[in-house]
Amino acid sequence: MTPNQETVRASTATSPISHALDRLFHFTQRGSTMPREILAGLTTFSTMSYVLAVNPLILSTAGMDRGALITSTAVIAAIFSIVMGLRTNYPLAMAPGMGVNAYIAVQVCQGMHIPWQAALGMVFYTGVLFMVISLTGIRQKIIEAFPPSFKRIVGAGIGMFIAFLGLKNGGIFVATPGSIIGLGDMTSATVLLGLGGIILTIVLVARKVPGALILSILIATVAGLFLPGPGGHGHITGMPAHLFSMPNSIMPVAFKLDLRYPFQHPTQSIPIILALLFTDIFSAMAVLFGVGARAGLTDADGNLPRLKQALSADAAAASGGALLGSTTAIIYLESAAGVEQGGRTGLVSISAAVCFLLALFVTPLIAIVPAVATTSALVMIGIFMMQSLGELDLKDITVASTTVVTLLLMTLSSASDGLALGFIVQVALLSATGRIRTIKPVAWGLVVLFLLHYLL
User: Fold this and answer.
1) pLDDT tens-digit profile of 203-255?
2) DSSP H helical ranges for 235-374
3) From CA 260, how far away is CA 277, in angstroms rounded?
4) Cross-strand bridge partners of residue 183
5) Within 10 A of 54 (CB to CB), how many other CB atoms are there?
6) For burial by CB atoms within 10 Å, which of 137, 345, 347, 349 has the most?
7) Which pLDDT tens digit goes with each residue over 25-72?
């Protein structure tokens, strides 16, 4: 008897619940079982649960309520993981994205002094635009306008910024009067904990330990209970008042977005919205095709049969995330962990969503996680995103020049400036080196739009 025949035979003896779920998700048809799908969902949750600690910490630096953000993060992850699972029947989980949150909190709100309510309004309009271009086919033309090399550069640039932010959170990088950036106090317990966490995380990831990122956060948080805090006062990690509690109210951040600001400040808002839009488009496509191929969901031509549904769910999550008080919700690459566990259907997404909701009742434990404990996760996420540089032909002076300009601007200025100016540089260099025919008509339109922004 073949493995598939055994799976089908086993499914005939399942409970009514399992049978009903199989009719909805077709996991038997895809060579899986209900227990395997649920276990895969738990695995996906364990690998991406760090978002419950990291996202609120990052966005709270913009002035948002951290307790409300914990609830918002979990609710958004649960709602849109369920939407993705039911709409596509793919094993994909969603949550507020790393990178976009850092860009909004640090570069938009702190750097440009834009209120967080206005920034959430921009995130909302990004989702609306993403929905429009996903349903009309414009999305494909925009994607094609950017050379494959530039898409990888943008991803790597955001990764570098995330890693830089992680090192800053850990006190490893500090502002100094004599230079752009300097090293922190290498004898400080906080800095040593941050460095130790980075090394530990790299080792855990290299050894393929499940849940390496959340495990490193937990270890650093526990270690902080015994290490002196800044200036020798208290400890790095405070003791929680309770282990369990009812979830914090989401209302301090939910439905607080300012939808008028982008219309009142269009020249300031448009580049930010475009940067968010392009980031979401590229990350969604990369994760969908990467995880989809691994799960055996692509057709003979390597395409996903339900790509439009997946992209529309992703677009809805961007606007929905803003409404509920957080930045863009994205499809998480960590969904691949559930796929490796054998997950093949949307039941994986539903199982991960339930875990996020249950996590709301341990909010006191999540709230004590210190910023330095997230250093390792941010640096590791940055490393993951920067691996795309390995696919670039840096011997090509055009590619190398565009890479340097884009990475430096994204890290030291802003993601929107890096994307806009980096793209202008690449188009200019392609034109000057005799490769003008490789430039798509839409690319020229984008260059004009970016130039008008800087000139006006």
Assistant:
1) 998 998 877 887 888 899 999 999 998 777 788 888 887 888 899 999 999 99
2) 261-264, 266-294, 307-323, 335-340, 347-359, 363-367
3) 19
4) 173
5) 29
6) 349
7) 888 888 888 988 898 888 788 778 889 988 999 999 999 999 999 999
Sign of the CA dihedral with 313 first, then 163, 336, and 370 last: negative
Q: 383, 156 in Cβ contact below 8 A?
A: no
Query: Residue 2: CB partners within 8 Å, gap ≥ 6?
Result: none
Cβ proximity of 133 and 365 under 8 Å: no
Nearest CA-CA partner of 85 in 325, 358, 317, 340: 317
Q: Are 316 and 129 in contact (CB under 8 A)?
A: no
Amino acid (1-letter code) at residue 87:
R
DSSP 8-class letter at 370:
-
User: What 3-state DSSP class applies to 456?
Assistant: coil
What 3-state class would DSSP assign to 180?
strand
Please tell me the distance from the alpha carbon of residue 30 to that of residue 43, in angstroms, as a whole number: 19
Render 35-57 in DSSP notation, one character per residue: HHHHHHHHHHHHHHTTHHHHHHH
The β-bridge relationship of strands 94-96 and 329-331 is antiparallel
HSE-CB of 43 using CA atoms within 13 angstroms: 25
Query: What is the C-alpha end-to-end distance of the chain, expressed in Å?
Result: 71
Nearest to 170 by CA among 83, 272, 54, 286: 54
The share of the chain scoring above pLDDT 70, in percent, equals 90
Quick one: 408 exposed, middle or buried, by C-beta within 10 A (0-12, 13-18, 19+)? middle
- Rounded to 10 deg, the angle between the 3-11 and 16-25 helix axes is 120
**Residue in the block written with tokens 């008008």:** 452
**pLDDT confidence bin for 140, thresholds 50/70/90:** low
Q: Which of 96, 122, 98, 97 is nearest to 109 (CA)?
A: 122
349 token code pair = 């997404």
φ, ψ (nearest 5 deg) of residue 179: -155, 170
What's the alpha-carbon Rg for the chain, to the nearest Å? 22
Of 215, 197, 291, give the one whose Cα is nearest residue 47: 215
Q: Which two tokens stand for residue 206?
A: 């290299």
Which parts of 26-147 fold into alpha helices (H)?
Answer: 34-48, 51-60, 66-88, 100-102, 116-136, 138-145
SS3 277: helix
Q: How many CB atoms lie within 10 A of CB 205?
A: 16
CA angle 146, 151, 153 (to 5 degrees): 125
